[in-house]
């Protein structure tokens, strides 16, 4: 595994966006643009940790180019395709933020929500989950912009199973460190939240 980006430079990073990427060369540009746009209206330091999960297209080359021109963009390069969960875990192991937001790079989860997550985090919540509320008629679903409503659920003290919750969430650093202690290298994001 290889890591690009100067770690010490990001020592004071508040938010880490962590995105696993498999054959996403066509999407990286719009993804980065969206994240930059969202953060441009927030007074918060951030990094984007992109994990190339053994892509067979030019994902890695494209990421390297972005990392060279923008020090907030870091690249973790996996030697082969390990699957999303392991790619995400690799990204979590290499991020520096005081809060961490894993996100898919296909923009199915609206990046705007990150700002709401951050304000909840600043209010003192350690985990902020984004919950999808599906429309009753799935056949009418269009793109995520129109097909998804959202609700933020603040959750840490009660143990209950969140429904329709994916990987899109904010974790405080101390929660991430606690999760790492479980030592599981796969599927912990969804599973361990239920324990
Ligand atoms: N992904 C990955 N490795 C894989 C498959 C997917 O890193 O082997 C990434 C992919 O690039 C995307 C995220 O994981 O950023 C979610 O993938 P996808 O949209 O295919 O999954 P779904 O939306 O069906 O959960
Ligand atoms: Mg997807």
UniProtKB/TrEMBL annotation:
Q: Which domain of life is it from?
A: Bacteria
Subcellular localization, as worded in the UniProt entry: Membrane
Keyword Secreted attributed: no
Pfam entry (one) = Glycos_transf_2
What region holds the Glycosyltransferase 2-like domain? 16-178
Recorded topology in the membrane: Multi-pass membrane protein
Main subcellular localisation: membrane
Among Gene3D superfamilies, the record links this protein to: Spore Coat Polysaccharide Biosynthesis Protein SpsA, Chain A (3.90.550.10)
Instruction: Say if the entry is tagged with keyword Membrane.
Output: yes
**Gene Ontology cellular component annotations, sorted alphabetically:** plasma membrane
Task: Give the UniProt keywords, A-Z.
Answer: Glycosyltransferase, Membrane, Transferase, Transmembrane, Transmembrane helix
Q: Which residues form the signal peptide?
A: none
Q: Which terms in the Gene Ontology molecular function aspect does this entry carry? A: glycosyltransferase activity
Protein name listed in UniProt? Glycosyltransferase 2-like domain-containing protein
The organism named in the record is Alteromonas mediterranea (strain DSM 17117 / CIP 110805 / LMG 28347 / Deep ecotype)
């Amino acid at each position: 595994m290889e890591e690009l980006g100067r770690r010490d430079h990001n020592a004071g990073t508040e938010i880490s966006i962590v995105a696993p990427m498999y054959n996403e060369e066509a999407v990286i540009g719009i993804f980065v643009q969206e994240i930059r746009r969202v953060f441009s209206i927030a007074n918060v330091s951030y990094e984007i940790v992109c994990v190339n999960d053994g892509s067979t297209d030019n994902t890695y080359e494209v990421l390297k180019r972005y990392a060279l021109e923008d020090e907030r963009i870091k690249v973790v390069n996996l030697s082969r395709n390990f699957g999303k969960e392991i790619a995400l875990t690799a990204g979590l192991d290499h991020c520096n933020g005081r809060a961490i937001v894993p996100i898919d790079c296909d923009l199915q989860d609206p990046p705007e929500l990150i700002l709401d997550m951050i304000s909840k985090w600043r209010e003192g919540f350690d985990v902020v989950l984004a919950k999808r509320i599906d429309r009753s008629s799935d056949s009418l679903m269009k793109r995520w912009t129109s097909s998804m409503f959202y609700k933020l659920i603040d959750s840490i003290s009660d143990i209950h199973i969140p429904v329709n919750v994916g990987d899109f969430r904010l974790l405080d650093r101390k929660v991430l460190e606690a999760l790492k202690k479980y030592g599981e290298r796969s599927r912990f994001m969804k599973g361990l939240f239920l324990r």
